[in-house]
Protein: peptidylprolyl isomerase
Amino acid sequence: MTTDQDLKMDGQPATSVFATKGTDVTPKKDKGVIKVVKRQGLDGERPMIGDRVTVHYTGKLLSGKKFDCSRERKEPFSFNVGKGQVLKAWDIGVMSMQRGEVCKLLCKPEYAYGSAGNPDKIPPSSSVVFEMELLKFEGEALTGDSGIIRRIKVKGDGYMNPNDGASVEVHLEGKCDGRRFDCRDVSFIVGEAEDKGVPLGVDRAMDKMQKGECCLLYLKPKYGFGSEGKPEFKIGPYKDIVYEVTLRSFQRAKESWEMDLPEKLELAAVVKQKGNQYFKAGLHHQAVAQYQRIVLWLEMECGTGMEQQKRIQSYMLTAHLNLALCFLRTKEYTQVVENCNKVVELDEHNEKALYRRGEARLLRNEFSLAMEDFQHVLQVNPSNRAARAQISICQSKIKEHHEQDKKTYANMFQKFAERDAKVRKTKRRRDECLRNGMNGEVGIKRRRRSQDGPSA
Structure:
């Protein structure tokens, strides 16, 4: 029979140590998670909601029986803290820790495995003890290139987020190299934050936030003030910046399915004009957001008459062509090809789409495909001198590529020949050594026989 006193800590019953040295880390202060620090952390910073944390842990019952251990698997465990991905006790306990800290957590059933327990491992309604080591943590990446990193200081309410085109009211505080350069309340339309001097990264983060949320956004230059910087804020080019953003309220825009076709067509005209303004100002990422709205609204629409069908096709062609041009500027050549393909599906002889796709393919070193596109352009418009010049470039590149291949293969074959010659030479030497060795042995044997044989 076991008791709650079987598990020892520093030679004393674990429950006694938690009672005398432990700290209640639960928000409700109901003693559901009691913490004892075994080793202090390296600095004062702690994980925030949504951070990706990596831990080592060992779980034991109060009887002292171990039921889980990451160290025995020789693999630490990672999760997004505060998101309900793990036991409630882990979310609470880990958010109280510092990097490098080791602690023990006494967890009541309602913060661990509940009244059901875990079959074959955790009896029903069991308190458990976890030893946790916080190895590292980092913010949540909101973009594939990790250009926007979010760390949530205060969790928002509900499950709704601002959508594209929503009206939002936020409080902003911007810092660069520790210096605060921006502090204000501002309202803007999601997708059009640039109109209010709000950087792209803040705009992009809106659809991930909830009302009342306060978060830190770590922005790389691409999502901040880019190569130009922000002279009015005394921020130079290519600077990382940090914004603390509080979403105070928002009004969602109508979703595509909530609008009828005439409304979409009316809005498409406004959005196209906004996208063109951004493009002319060199704000290509902001322009992309506008043109993509048109595609989202109209890509599944057919129209009820010839007039509507023509308007839909006109907007779709323009949106995809403009997206291709934006992606050429941002050097996202795969996106250029994809958008040009969409145009060619609607209009196989579209000169601009063929030319831009050729440009993207040329920049991707797909010389033959690029030349086919430029040749197609000349079939559509024989007077297009730019396409003719690009064909010459493609021909030169193809020739250069073939010459390079010939050199590469020549070197390769030369290396193969040298290696084969070396192998043959080594084999000859080995064979000669073997023959010489055999001849030597034969001579020795003959001499021995002549010495050991009868004298005449």
Remarks:
- Residues 138 and 358 are 41 Å apart (CA to CA).
- The longest strand covers residues 128-138.
